[in-house]
Specification:
binds 3-isopropylmalic acid, alpha/beta, Isopropylmalate Dehydrogenase, binds magnesium ion, 10-stranded mixed β-sheet, two-stranded antiparallel ribbon, 2 domains
């Protein structure tokens, strides 16, 4: 059997720096655990625009459809702010999500014990936090038609459309219930059924999927604004949160910050199973391209490395090695290793991006 394949798309800003550390980890698995991957690399985002005039070349799109998993760094930067909307770096990422039909976006917010002091919330509110936001990723207001900026009388009007079909809601709900069964068996669904018809349908369909297929899972519903408030008040009440594309974008950034640093959080975007049984999948850190610190070796590679751990778990069915990698990161943090985004304690000198990568490799070695 051939080796599993990974397409690496480092992207822009700090993307290439953090991805270089992921490559070291991938190589470690080949050398020390006999887990060899066929790795190829390509461009996405602003760098793809610079070379090809498009943020995602058709050949890259085709490659992404063929591999077992895509790992993406980050896209965007001020250099591209003035570009036409249709070729902005973000369009490359959105095209990948849409054409690979990655409808289920898993965004865990987990607070490592060693970092509980970094949260803006009180330590007892976040210590031990472990929640999973499941964000619908291929529909809703990000993609609904009509959309655009139109002339109406003597002024312009900007239009986007929130649109969800029953089947789109059903499939993401199923993915949330499946995850909950492997966790603490609780799902909270968030929408705004009080003001949006799409929210009414969302609530009905999630309830129906629950009643007919997952009656054993505890289900609750919350308006998304109240959900945002509850996330800040007492996040540990949640296990799995399932929500639409836009609410999920907002709620996952808020949840991420509870854990102390956006530099820590991975994500998995999953679609339907391919012929080999693996889901279509793209893994990326939740953080952006951070152009202000790009190229300085200051970025925290942990979110991107944890994204590879998610790939081990969800694409390569290797929970044991995913656990090993997550444990190595926990150890390194417990021993006091910090990148610049995690400073705050007196007298701690920050590690560079590659020093953090090396520390994680050393912890992996020690785990053998
Ligand atoms: C995210 C980002 C993206 C989104 C951008 C970069 C298009 O904010 O993944 O959360 O809005 O989905
Ligand atoms: Mg976002």
């Amino acid at each position: 059997m051939s080796n599993p394949s990974i397409l690496i798309l480092p992207g822009d800003g700090i993307g290439p720096e953090v991805m270089a550390e992921v490559r070291k980890i991938i190589d470690w698995y080949g050398a020390k655990r006999d887990l060899v991957f066929d790795v190829s690399e390509d461009l996405v985002g602003g760098c793809a625009y610079d070379k090809h005039g498009t943020p995602l070349h058709d050949d890259t799109m085709a490659k992404a459809q063929e591999v077992d998993a895509v790992l993406l760094g980050a896209v965007g930067g001020p250099k591209y702010d003035a570009l036409d909307f249709s070729v902005k770096p973000e369009r490359g990422l959105l095209r990948l999500r849409k054409e690979m039909d990655l409808y289920s976006n898993l965004r865990p917010a987990q607070c490592f014990d060693a970092l509980a002091d970094f949260s803006s919330l009180k330590k007892d509110v976040v210590a031990g936090l472990d929640i999973m936001i499941v964000r619908e990723l291929t529909s809703g207001i990000y993609f609904g038609e009509p959309r655009g900026i139109f002339k109406e009388g003597n002024e312009r009007v900007g239009i986007n459309t929130q649109r969800y079909t029953e089947s789109e809601i059903e499939r993401v709900a199923r993915s949330a219930f499946e995850l909950a069964r492997r966790r603490n068996n609780k799902v909270c669904s968030m929408e705004k059924a009080n003001v949006m018809e799409s929210g009414i349908l969302w609530r009905e369909v999630v309830q129906k999927v629950h009643d007919t297929e997952y009656p054993d899972v505890e289900l609750s519903h919350m308006y998304a604004d109240a959900g945002a408030m509850q996330l800040c008040r007492w996040p540990k009440q949640f296990d799995v949160i399932v929500t639409d594309n836009l609410f999920g974008d907002l709620l996952s950034d808020a949840a991420a910050m509870l854990t102390g640093s956006l530099g820590m959080l991975p994500s998995a975007s999953l679609g339907a199973p391919m012929a080999n049984g693996r889901p279509k999948a793209l893994y990326e850190p939740v953080h952006g391209s951070a152009p202000d610190i790009a190229g300085q070796g200051k970025a925290n590679p942990i979110a991107c490395i944890l994204s590879f751990a998610m790939a081990l778990r969800y694409s390569f069915d290797n929970g044991a090695e995913a656990d090993r990698l997550e444990k190595a990161i926990e150890t390194v943090l417990a021993n006091g290793a910090r990148t610049a985004d995690l400073l705050g304690e007196d007298g701690v000198t920050p590690l560079s991006t590659s020093e953090m990568g090396d520390a994680i490799l050393a912890a992996l070695d020690a785990s053998l």
